[in-house]
Amino acid sequence: MRFSIILLGAISLSALPAQQSTSVVQGVVYDSVARAPLAGAIVQVVLIDSAVSAPQRAFTALSDSTGHYRIEGLPSGRFAIGFQHRAVDALGIEVPLRAFASSGDSVTMNLAIPEGTAVRKLVCGAEQRLEGEGMLAGYVLDGRGENALKGAAVKARWVELALEKKNYHSVTRAVTAIVDDDGRYHACGITSDDAVRLEVTMAGYRPLTNTVTVERDGTMRQDFRLVAENISTGSNTISGRVLHSDGSIVASGRVAISALSVDVPIDGGTFSIVGLPSGTWLVETTSLGLEPVGTLVDVRDGVIATPRIAMNNRAQMLDAVSVLGRPGGSDKILKAIEARRRYANGTLFMPGNDWLAIARDPADLVRDAAGFRYINEEKVLASGCGFKDLPTERQATIAMTQKPRDRVLAIYLDGLRVVGGLPELRTVVTMRDVLAVEAYQDVATAPIEWRTYDACAVLAIWTKR
């Protein structure tokens, strides 16, 4: 960002006479998008009153961890003040400069990134497909944060209710943003009131997936540092704490990084994962009876990452709704899927979904499921299984003696395990009978009832009633 001194000079007040006294300007730099003080902002003050003679005309300070800055030794006169920060660059905006006059006193000038609604309008424009559209923005860089990953894709996907021919049905929406030369992306038009599924991909790098909530008509900033596929070890450490929502410790459970097949225990509310490459990792936390949590953690060379992970004491329940008429079996199934959506993290194919309408068989659906890869009608790969060839379901009978990497894609039909996997599934169900499908790329993100010892991912098919 360049300071527009000429513009401010054009609107400056009449020149003030030079004086020997010096002034102080101080205040707080605030990030209205993140709703937090902005640390590390470069605050610059420039003397713009040409009638003042001074040996120094530009002054700089860095905001501290609480967003505070202080600049001393200003001569009397009129000044322009502004700030620079990576967060401003990521949003793709310029923060307006401000002017102030000082004559030997202390001046307070609080500075801020505009609030999310204003930022969204500046970047995305005033036109909206639907009321309340939000924006997601940030950087996508390599693992060390040194190089922009130009051409990387950030895909946001969510489910909307659409009204067509006087009937409501669910529609999967998606917005894809491509990273520019500077490593920035801007995803406009996100309209979900609920969790939005994110998938960040770049050829030659490990994909990242997670869920976020973008405020209506607002802006969320999220940076990603992708790790090359051929890098699996490093010298970095995550040493974190896991707490209940009331602040008490979560005594036991598991913390995993599925992309590296790493799984460690929670011991007395703490965990430690060592030997990690620098980059952004999805850390998945589970504990019996608690809502699973996925957390993006930045791991940097020479710095121990210390995340605090909060877990809800119980799975969230859906708000009560009124139903007119007697609900059928299909209605009950769909309500149960919506309930699981609150505490599990997968791709849902609900009635009205385009892929559900055109798929030839259940395996065909994973072409649009996060973390899955379609090979053929009897073979798919899942990230929770290492994106490798998956053993057949019949091999799971000896899984008690196998290593975690030998776990299988667990397939359920109407809640019952399909022993023969995809080949058997194709013989017992046709797509015209399918009501909905749940696809969980990793067993750690699946509903608790399907987290069996022999599973690495889950595909659940529900038929019409």
Explain what you see.
The protein is mostly beta strands and 465 residues long. The protein has six helices and 31 strands. It has helices at residues 5-10, 86-91, 116-124, 329-341, 354-358, 421-428; strands spanning 22-31, 36-37, 42-47, 58-62, 68-75, 77-84, 98-102, 106-108, 111-113, 134-142, 153-164, 167-178, 184-190, 196-201, 208-212, 219-221, 224-226, 236-244, 252-257, 262-267, 270-276, 279-286, 293-299, 308-311, 347-349, 372-376, 379-382, 408-413, 416-417, 434-440, 455-463. The strands form eight sheets. Strands 1, 2, 5, 8 and 9 form a five-stranded mixed sheet that branches. Strands 25-30-31-28-29 form a five-stranded mixed sheet, with helices on both faces. The longest helix has 13 residues, at 329-341. Mean pLDDT is 82; it is low at 1-19, 315-327 and 388-405.
Main sheet specs: 5 strands, mixed
Sequence stretches where pLDDT stays below 50 over 5 or more residues: 1-19, 315-327, 388-405
Portion of residues in beta strands equals 35-45%
The overall pLDDT, averaged over residues, is 82
Report Rg. Answer: 27 Å
In DSSP terms (H or I, runs of 4 or more residues), the helix count works out at 6
Distance between the termini: 60 Å
- The percent range for helix content is 10-25%
Comma- or semicolon-separated keywords:
single chain, 465 residues, mainly beta, five-stranded mixed β-sheet, 6 helices, 31 strands, 10% helix, 41% strand, elongated, disordered N terminus
